[in-house]
Amino acid sequence: MVDETAQPSGLQATVVQAGAMVEVVVPAGRPALYWRDPSLIGQPNQLQLYGATIQFVVQWQSSAGGAITSSMLSATSAVIIGRYDTALRFRVSVQSPVQASAATLTVELSVKNVIAVNGSDLQPATRKLMLLTLSELKFLLLPASFDTRPHTSRSVALSTLLLFFVLNYH
């Protein structure tokens, strides 16, 4: 588990369901947490991700009562960190109805979907900046926390995460 700068959060993920899922218990008031995809290690050139849509399934269990809603999931973001430690933050979209504490989320890796550059929403994203970032990609971070109340978050096991991405090129 990492924070939005890919620094360790101090929380440990646990492999469950015979290695098919990973989970983490998110304490109350914890800042945003992310799953870090390890399949990119040693493969920095990810230009083919430009314009792609990443699809992933998340599950959760709230220990404080109350439901995690579609709007709470949409308020999360994904982050890529690349060349010159440039960090691009992207909107997350909910693609399936929230049912039984699970949902399918997508992230479109396009300039129009960037909501912040290096933590600022004042600096506009450009195609050139995005291509430079993807040309030396260090981290792809997907949201792992969805609420400020305590909850358990689950996602596809990170060692197989890229196998579940749906890449739609525009």
Keywords:
single chain; mainly beta; five-stranded antiparallel β-sheet; 11 strands; globular
Task: Outline the structure in words.
- The protein is mostly beta strands and about 170 residues long.
- It has one domain (about 35-165).
- About 10% of the residues lie in helices and about 35% in strands.
- It contains two helices and eleven strands, in the order E-E-E-E-H-E-E-E-E-E-H-E-E.
- It has helices at about 70-75, 125-135; strands spanning about 15, 20-25, 35, 55-60, 75-80, 85-90, 95, 100-110, 115, 140-145, 150-155.
- The strands form two sheets. A six-stranded antiparallel beta sheet has the order 1-2-11-4-8-7.
- The protein is globular, with a radius of gyration of 15 Å.
- The N and C termini lie far apart (about 30 Å).
- The relative contact order is 0.30.
- The model is unreliable at about 155-170 (pLDDT under 50).
Shape descriptor reads: globular
Largest sheet: 6 strands, antiparallel
Count of β-strands: 11
In total, the number of domains comes to 1
Content-based structural category: mainly beta
First-last Cα distance:
31 Å
Bin the helical content. under 10%
